[in-house]
Amino acid sequence: MPSTTTSHPEQGTQPVLSVRNLDVRYGDVAAVTGADLDIHPGQRVAIVGESGSGKTSLGNAVAGFQPAAATITADRLELQGTALDRSSAQPIPTRTPGLSMIFQDAMRSLDPVWTVGSQLLAVLKPGRSRKEAHRAALGWLDEVGITDPERVMDVYPHQLSGGMRQRVMMAIALASKPSLLIADEPTSALDASLAVTAMRLIVSMAEREDAAVLVITHDIELCRHFADVVVVMYHGEIVETIAASDLDRAQHPYTRGLVACVPTLASAKLEELPTLASVMGTEGDAA
Ligand SMILES: Nc1ncnc2c1ncn2[C@@H]1O[C@H](COP(=O)(O)OP(=O)(O)OP(=O)(O)O)[C@@H](O)[C@H]1O
């Protein structure tokens, strides 16, 4: 079995997230099998793999956003030492204290019938006067690069551009002071330069707030630049867990395939790029 946890300077301290032998099934479909994962305070972990490899199922199981059709079992599923009960889907998903999630589509996490301000205030109000919470909300909007926070407080999500909505979603996710931020394909809908800006913002804000980050992505290059550790999934299993700085020395053929499939100036001299099917010897299999 490949190792599915990695060494980290803070190993020995309690992990923020600790998962052992996690299975996610949808009826006969085994979406995730036997996943082990530890995320340490402040660590940035990326889950990478092709479409259908089980990344989102794993992230949703941790966050408690699993669909009703999912059956989740685990020997351990703990956030800061507290067991998370994911035995049944909630009719209306509720926030797990200490955990925030952001999505590719900001409309999935923003409520369309509440103004931006009321959604931010809902997170910021506990323990604060209304005035303090309002000031904190403006501060958060400013932090995520919104230049006219007073106006944005009063608008509804659909009145904002996609990029602005994403910034608002980030402000709400981090204003709740999570110890773990899960970001599911946060940049897939953005063009390359905006994707880098968005990832920089996620990483720098999370670092400032002392939140560990779990990014779910197809993009191995994004992992290389923004993650400490890369968790590689293939057909529902974690096949390799590797320091991002070691990606070029990956052991598993699938990880090597993912790295080799990224077009670079050097690879452009190849007659053709390898495909994952050719790397895994599954070329010609039925899709
Ligand atoms: N609600 C669902 N009901 C039934 N099967 C599902 C459901 N959600 C996912 N699956 C199946 O579970 C497997 C893993 O899907 P999952 O979405 O977790 O993978 P992924 O790696 O995140 O893919 P993508 O990158 O395309 O989102 C796939 O075979 C998928 O078809």
Automatic annotation (TrEMBL):
It comes from Nocardioides bruguierae. This is ABC transporter ATP-binding protein. InterPro entries: AAA+_ATPase (IPR003593), ABC_Ni/Peptide_Import (IPR050388), ABC_transporter-like_ATP-bd (IPR003439), ABC_transporter-like_CS (IPR017871), P-loop_NTPase (IPR027417). Keywords: ATP-binding, Cell membrane, Membrane, Nucleotide-binding, Transport. Pfam families: ABC_tran. It is found in: Cell membrane. The keyword Membrane applies. PANTHER family: DIPEPTIDE TRANSPORT ATP-BINDING PROTEIN DPPD (PTHR43297:SF2), OLIGOPEPTIDE TRANSPORT ATP-BINDING PROTEIN APPD (PTHR43297). GO terms for molecular function: ATP binding; ATP hydrolysis activity. GO terms for cellular component: plasma membrane. It is a peripheral membrane protein. Residues 17-260 form the ABC transporter domain. Belongs to the ABC transporter superfamily. SMART domains: AAA (SM00382).
